[in-house]
Structure formats: structure tokens, C-alpha cells
From TrEMBL:
Protein name, as recorded: DJ-1/PfpI family protein
Chain segments annotated as coiled-coil in the UniProt record: none
Domain DJ-1/PfpI: 7-140
């Protein structure tokens, strides 16, 4: 087996929305089937997470056990738009995000996960977006300069995608 060209980590927050996890995951799974050499790994702040739909996801690796590097990707799935609780995540997660950002890891947030990047300070002075229902809330709660009501935002080291539903 050849060494993977990159690791693709999926960080699964509390109350994850399955659509935000499965859509991106399916893209990378298909890429693997087509011959791209990615190692897909699932990480979280706990060993198991209850999704917003009630399904439990288990056997997750604690994020502190991995150290993504320059060629790696970290996707942070969105979570219930009705239960945004940034204090529900392990406080050391935000420091970890800052550290992997310094490693030049590509960090991508899906939908409401932009709140987690903002809390870690990774969106300061950057263009970003979030779920259309949450744009005003993100503007009120996090000091951001360039929040936009657009389907995606791309910065050199972060990519943020909003869901329109």
C-alpha cells in the first residue's frame, strides 16, 4: 500500500448535522475509489457524538491525538442551527485549531462550523460566510470584518461553505 498523499480529517462537533458531514465525506470517498491517496480519519472532542438527528457516532479519535500538517485537510462539520453552544466543545480544541493553522493545514468549515473557526480567531480579518439563517447571529456574536451572505468563501488557508437549506 502506498503512503497517502494527504490526511483528510473530519472533526465531528456535538450535535453535528449529518448532511454537513456526509456530503463532503462522500466526495473524498469517491476520490479514494478513483485512486486518490487520501487517508480519511474521524476526530472529535469525545469518543462518541450524538447527531442533531439523534444518531450516535462512535469510535472517534480525540483531536489532540492527531497533528495535521501542510498537505492535510481538516473539515469541521456544521451542527444544529437551533443549538449553537460554542461552550460545548473542549476549550483546548480552539488552541488546537490555531496550532494546525500555523502548520498551514487547510481548514474547512461547513455551514454553522464557521462559529467554531471564529471563536478560535481564525476568521479575523478574513472573508467568511455561514448558514444563511445564521449570518446575522455570527455578525452580532463574533467581531468579523468581512462576513458575507454567499454560498462559499475561500481564503488561502480556510474554506467556508454555507448550506442554503
Amino acid at each position: 500500500m502506498t503512503k497517502p498523499i494527504a490526511n483528510v480529517y473530519f472533526y465531528i462537533p456535538q450535535q453535528v448535522t449529518l448532511l454537513d458531514l456526509s456530503g463532503v465525506l462522500q466526495v473524498f470517498q469517491e476520490a479514494k475509489l478513483l485512486g486518490f491517496e487520501y487517508e480519511i480519519r474521524f476526530i472529535s472532542s469525545t469518543a462518541s457524538v450524538i447527531c442533531s438527528s439523534g444518531l450516535e457516532l462512535a469510535s472517534l479519535t480525540h483531536f489532540s491525538k492527531v497533528n495535521p500538517q501542510e498537505n492535510d485537510f481538516v473539515f469541521i462539520s456544521g451542527f444544529s442551527t437551533h443549538q449553537i453552544d460554542l461552550d460545548g466543545e473542549d476549550a483546548s480544541f480552539f488552541t488546537w485549531l490555531q496550532q494546525i493553522s500555523a502548520n498551514q493545514t487547510t481548514i474547512c468549515s461547513i455551514c454553522s462550523a464557521a462559529f467554531l473557526l471564529a471563536k478560535a480567531g481564525l476568521l479575523n480579518d478574513k472573508e467568511c460566510t455561514t448558514h444563511w439563517k445564521l449570518v446575522d447571529k455570527l455578525k452580532r456574536n463574533i467581531r468579523l470584518q468581512k462576513l458575507k451572505r454567499i454560498p462559499y468563501s475561500r481564503n488561502p488557508e480556510t474554506f467556508i461553505q454555507a448550506r442554503e437549506s
